[in-house]
Amino acid sequence: MFRNSYDSDNTTFSPQGKLHQVEYALEAVKQGSAAIGLRSKTHAVLLTLKRSTGELATYQKKLIRIDDHVGIAIAGLTSDARVLSNSMRQQAMQSRMLYGRPIPVARIVQTIADKAQNNTQIYGRRPYGVGFLVIGEDETGPHLYEFSPSGTAFEYYAHSIGARSQSAKTYLEKNFESFETSDLPALINHGLSALADTLQQDKHLTTLNTSIAIIGPASAEIEQASSGAARRGYFRVWENDDIDGLLRSWRRSRGEPEDGPQEETAAEAEVAAAGEEAAAAAPAPVAETEQAAGGDDVEMQ
Amino acid sequence: MSSIGTGYDLSVSTYSPDGRLFQVEYANKAVEAAGVAVGIRCSDGIVLGVERLLHSKLLVKGGNRRIQSVDEHVGLATAGLLADGKHLATRLRDEAYNFRDTYNAPATVQILSDRLSGYVQAYTCYGSVRPFGVSSLVAGVDKTGPRLFCVEPSGVFYGYRACAIGKGKALAKTELEKLIAKEADGGEAITCREAIDEIARIIYLVHDDNKDKDFELEMTWVSTETGGKHRAVPGELQAEAEAKAKAALEEGMEED
Amino acid sequence: MNHHPAAWGQPLTAHQQFDMYSTNPMGMSAPRSAHSHGPVQNTQWPLVTGTSVIGIKYEGGVMLAADNLASYGSLARFRDIERLHALGTHTILGVAGDMSDFQYLKKELDGLLREEETLTLTDAHPPLSPNNLYTFLANLFYARRNKINPLWNACLVGGWDFKKDESFLGYVDLLGTTYTAPTLATGFGAHIAQPLLREAYEAKAGVDLEGRPGADGRLLTAEEAEAVIDDCMKVLYYRDARSINKYQVARVTKDGVSISESKSSETEWMYAEGLRGYGGQTQ
C-alpha cells in the first residue's frame, strides 16, 4: 500500500534521514495554482492565478490580508491556510495591542513556521498542506518570505509556489537582478510575465483569474486613488475589473494586442456572466459544488 | 544497510536485536546532509562559522541566517533540519530566560547544553515523537570562561576545544586537530581573530564546488571585542578572512 | 502587633489589644478561609518607596531626574538607590512608588529586551522603541490593576523616537493611567516641580509667546533644562519630607542614554529673618 515502509507517518526518519510525510506535504502545495511574489527596494507584490470549480462558482480567493503591513498568497489546502492565517492575524493584533508596533515580518512568518515544525514531529498529526508567500513591510523595509509545510521560512528577492511554478521561477531567476530598482508598474509587469508562464497551454491571464496584492507607496499611474489602503501604502488587493488596466499595460509592454487574445473574449464573457450571477446570489458553499472537468481540486487553491 | 526492512528501525521506542536505536542513527543522517558548522574555543572567546548552502539564487543575500542567539552571551549553530534548529533555539532561549528568572544570573554554557541535551534526549524515548534531526554547537563566554559544547540527536553532549558538525565534518575535524595541537600540549589557545581566518579557510576547504550548491559563509563570535556578547563577525573582518581563504585554496590547488 | 509604617501612631484596635503577640491559641495560626479572613487581598499599600521623578524635553533630547532615597514609611531607610534605569540604548525609565515592584519591573523589562536582542541576530530588526516600551508598560500596569493586584508605581519613560526624530516623554501609573507632555512629574513633584518645569518650558517654547523676551518657540537647551531640573530637585528637597539631597539626572539623545553620578543642591538653612510672604506681616 505504501511506497516504502518509512512514509506512513511523520515521526519516522528514512534511512537517508528524510521525512517522507513532510515531502508529500510539499507535493500538496504543488497541487494548488501558482502564486508569485517579488520585491523591490520600495514595494513587495504578490500575483496569483485563481481557480474556479465551474461556471456556477466564483473564483477562489488566494490572497489574504493579515494586517495593514502584511499579506499572504496561498497554494495548497485552503482550509489549512485559513487556520494559519487566523493565527497570523492574532499574532499581528497582539503585537499592536501589547507594544503598539506592527509585528516585524520575519517574526510573524517564524511563528507559523514554528507551528508547522511541531506538526512534523508529533505522531498522529500531519504536516500542513499549504505553502505561503508572505509580503510585508516593517522598519527594515519591504520583505518577501516563503513559508512551507516543512516548517521553514526563507526570505527571497522573488519566488513562486504552486502548480507549474518552476516555469515562473525560471523567468524570475533570469530577471530578478533588475527587481531591486524597479518601479511598481515594472515590478507588476515582471510578476504577470512570470505568472503567465505557469499557465497551461491556450489559457490566458484574465481579469477573472488574476489577482494582485501590493504593499508600498501607491502608483497613480496604475492604482485607483479611491483606495485608502493604497494611499497609505498598506496591503491591498486588486482583482476583477480593477486589474483590467494592469493587464492591458502589461500586454502593451510585451507588444501584444491590448485586449488580449480575441478568441478568448467570448468564452470569458460567458464565464464572467456566470461568475457574476453566482456572486449575486448567496455564494454556494464551494465544497459542495462539482469539481471542474479540468480536474482542479477545490481544496487545492 | 542491514537495518532496512527488519522492522526494527521504524520507531525510536524500538531497539534492534543488537541494541541499537536506528531512528536516532537515521536522524544523524539528516545532520550529515547539512552544510558544515564549525566552532572554536579561543583564548579570548569563541567563534562559530557555518557553510550556508543556497538552494536558490533568488534567496536574499546575507539573509536567512543559520546561527542564532540564545542569550546575550551564548550562540547556537545547528546542522540538520532547519526547522528543528529553530525549535531548539526557541527552547534554549526559554531555558536561558528561565534560569535568569530563578537565579538572577546568566546561565553558563554548560548548564544550557545540559538542559538542551535533556530535551533532545526526551525525543529519543517515545514512539509518539521523532528525534531531532539536528546537531547543535552551543558556544559562549560565561563566568567560567569561553566554552563550546556539541549536542547530538541522541542527546549526548561533550565539551570541545574545537568541533565540526554536518557534511564534511571529518575533513574539518582533521584541520581543527592541527589548530589545537599547541593548546593540547599545554600552550595557549588561538585568538578569536586567528580563529575567524581559520574557520573561513576550513569551510572553503570543505566545500566542494563541483558537488555542492553555492554557499554563503556566516560567522559569529563572543569575544572581548564584542564585550562578551554574541554578535555577527563584522563585515570587513569576515571579508578579509574569506579573501585569505580563497587565496589559500588556490595555492593549495596549484600544489596539487 | 501591627508594625506596618501606615499603622504607626494609630491607636490599637480592640482585637489587637486582646492578643497583641498572637499567642492564643499558642503555636497555632487560624486556618485561612474566605470566611475567617475575608476575600483575598493583594498589595494594599507600598512599603519601601521612592518619591518624585521629574522630566523635561529639551532641544535634541529628554532629561529625567530622581533622588537616591528609598523610604520605609517616614524613615529614610536606603540612601543609595538608583531609580533611573536604562532600557536598551535609547530609553530611560524613572520610577516612583514601591521599590520592590520597581525591581520586578526592571527584571521583566530587561528580560523582554534581552529576548528581543537575541532575535535581532536572526532578523536584523531594530529594538523596541521608547514608544513601544511605554505601550507595553501601560498594558502591564492596567492589566495588573484589573487583577486588583497593582504594581504600586508611577513611572516616567523618556527616550528618543527615531521614527519622528524627536524625544519622547510619557507617564504611566499603578492605575494604568497614561499621558504624555513635554514636562512631567510624578507624585508630590506634580504639585511642586511641574509648575516650575512648565513655566521654564512655556517661556521659550510655549504657545502664547507674544511679548515674552527670549521666547523663540525653540525648546530649552540642555544646559537650560538641567538648570531647571536642578532647581526643581532643590525645591523638592526643601518641601518633600520623603526626599534627600542626593539625586541623579539622566539624558537621552540620538546618541543614547547617559545617567549622571549622584549630585546635591546647595541649600540654605539659616533663620529666615528677612523672609516675607507668610503669616501676618504687613510690610
Describe the structure concisely.
Chain A: Its main location: cytoplasm. The complex is a heterotrimer of chains A (301), B (256) and C (283). Chain A is of the alpha+beta class and 301 residues long.
User: Quick one: CATH superfamily of chain B?
Assistant: Aminohydrolase, N-terminal nucleophile (Ntn) domain
CATH topology of chain B: Glutamine Phosphoribosylpyrophosphate, subunit 1, domain 1
Q: How would you sum up the major sheet of chain B? A: 5 strands, antiparallel
- Give the low-confidence spans of chain B: none
From the N-terminal CA to the C-terminal CA of chain B, the straight-line distance is 35 Å
Portion of residues in beta strands of chain A equals 15-25%
What does this structure look like?
The complex is a heterotrimer of chains A (301), B (256) and C (283). Chain A has 301 residues and is of the alpha+beta class. Chain A has one domain (13-257): Glutamine Phosphoribosylpyrophosphate, subunit 1, domain 1 (4-Layer Sandwich). Chain A contains eight helices and ten strands. In chain A, the strands form two sheets. Chain A has a five-stranded antiparallel beta sheet with strand order 8-1-2-9-10. In chain A, 49% of the residues are buried. Mean pLDDT of chain A is 89; it is low at 272-295. Chain B has one domain (22-255): 4-Layer Sandwich (Glutamine Phosphoribosylpyrophosphate, subunit 1, domain 1), CATH 3.60.20. Chain B has seven helices and ten strands. In chain B, the strands form two sheets. Chain B has a five-stranded antiparallel beta sheet. In chain B, strands 3-4-5-6-7 form a five-stranded antiparallel beta sheet. In chain B, helix 2 packs across helix 3 and helix 4 (169-179) packs antiparallel against helix 6 (192-206). The mean pLDDT of chain B is 95. By secondary structure, chain C is an alpha+beta fold. Chain C has a single domain (48-263), classed as Aminohydrolase, N-terminal nucleophile (Ntn) domain (Glutamine Phosphoribosylpyrophosphate, subunit 1, domain 1). In chain C, the strands form two sheets. In chain C, strands 1, 4, 5, 6, 7, 8, 9 and 10 form an eight-stranded antiparallel beta sheet that branches. A five-stranded antiparallel beta sheet of chain C has the order 11-2-3-12-13, covered by helices on one side. In chain C, helix 5 (188-205) packs antiparallel against helix 6 (222-239). The longest helix of chain C has 25 residues, at 99-123. Chains in contact: A-B, A-C, B-C. Chain A binds chain B through residues 5-6, 10-19, 110, 113-114, 116-118, 120-124, 150-152, 154-159, 169, 172-173, 176, and chain B through 1, 3-5, 7, 9-12, 22-23, 26-33, 56-60, 63-64, 81-84, 86-87, 90, 123, 127-133. Chain C: It comes from Apiotrichum porosum. Chain C: Belongs to the peptidase T1B family. Chain C: Its main location: cytoplasm. Chain C: Residues 21-42 are annotated as: Disordered. Chain C: Non-catalytic component of the proteasome.
